[in-house]
C-alpha cells in the first residue's frame, strides 16, 4: 500500500471492477475480507463494527467502490439509511486502506426502484467478500427472510498508510 495515491487506488478499483486485475490493493482486500465499517450517529459520534466486504463496482453506474452485506433491521442499516455515507477500513498486518463515500443500498426494502435482481446483487457482494455457498437457493431464502441488504460504498475518498 505504501506509495499509492488516491488516483492510483481509484484507477485500481475501476480496473478490479471491470477486469479483476491483481494489484496490491486487491490483495489487501482479498487477504483480509473483514472490514470495519463506520457510520455517523445522529449525535455526531461514530458507530463501528466488523463486516466481510470486498472490492465491487456500483451495480447501477459502475462507479468504483467496495461493498458488504448487512443484516436487515440492524442499527447499522438504520444509520446507513439515515446518513447515506459510510467508511470501510481494510487491514492486513500493518497495511490498511479506507474507502469513504455515499452508499447505495440494495435489498428487499431498499433500492428496488433501480430494477436490480436483489438476490443476485446480494450474492455478488457475498462472493466479492470471499464467500461461497453450496446451495444458492437456500442462501437466497435466508437472505430474504433476514431482510439482508447489499451496501455499496462509492470510493469518493481513499486513505492508506503514508508512504
Short description:
The chain is α+β, with helices and mostly antiparallel strands and 163 residues long. It has 5 helices and 8 strands; from the N terminus they run ααββββαββααββ.
CATH architecture: Roll
Oligomer: single chain
> Would you report the number of β strands?
8
- Give the domain tally: 1
Average predicted local confidence, pLDDT: 78
Name the features:
single chain, 163 residues, alpha+beta, Pnp Oxidase, Chain A, 8 strands, 31% strand
Care to describe what's here?
The protein is α+β, with helices and mostly antiparallel strands and 163 residues long. It has a single domain (6-160), classed as Pnp Oxidase, Chain A (Roll). 32% of the residues lie in helices and 31% in strands. It has five helices and eight strands. The protein has helices at residues 6-19, 24-31, 75-83, 118-128, 136-145; strands at 34-40, 46-48, 51-55, 65-70, 85-92, 95-106, 149-154, 157-160. A hairpin with a 2-residue loop joins strand 5 and strand 6. The chain is globular. The protein starts with 5 loop residues before the first helix and ends with a strand. 36% of the residues are buried. The model is unreliable at 1-6 and 11-33 (pLDDT under 50).
Amino acid at each position: 500500500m505504501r506509495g499509492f495515491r488516491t488516483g492510483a487506488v481509484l484507477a485500481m478499483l475501476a480496473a478490479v471492477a471491470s477486469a479483476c486485475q491483481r494489484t496490491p490493493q486487491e490483495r489487501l482486500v482479498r487477504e483480509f475480507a473483514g472490514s470495519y465499517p463506520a457510520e455517523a450517529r445522529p449525535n455526531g459520534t461514530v458507530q463501528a463494527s466488523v463486516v466481510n466486504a470486498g472490492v465491487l463496482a456500483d451495480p447501477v453506474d459502475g462507479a468504483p467502490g467496495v461493498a458488504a452485506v448487512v443484516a436487515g433491521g440492524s442499527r447499522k442499516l438504520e444509520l446507513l439509511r439515515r446518513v447515506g455515507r459510510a467508511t470501510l477500513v481494510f487491514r492486513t498486518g500493518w497495511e490498511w486502506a479506507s474507502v469513504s463515500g455515499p452508499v447505495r443500498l440494495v435489498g428487499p426494502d431498499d433500492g428496488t426502484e433501480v430494477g436490480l435482481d436483489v438476490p443476485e446483487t446480494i450474492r455478488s457482494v457475498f462472493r466479492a467478500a470471499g464467500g461461497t455457498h453450496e446451495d444458492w437457493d437456500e442462501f437466497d431464502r435466508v437472505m430474504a427472510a433476514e431482510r439482508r441488504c447489499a451496501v455499496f460504498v462509492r470510493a469518493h475518498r481513499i486513505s492508506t498508510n503514508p508512504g
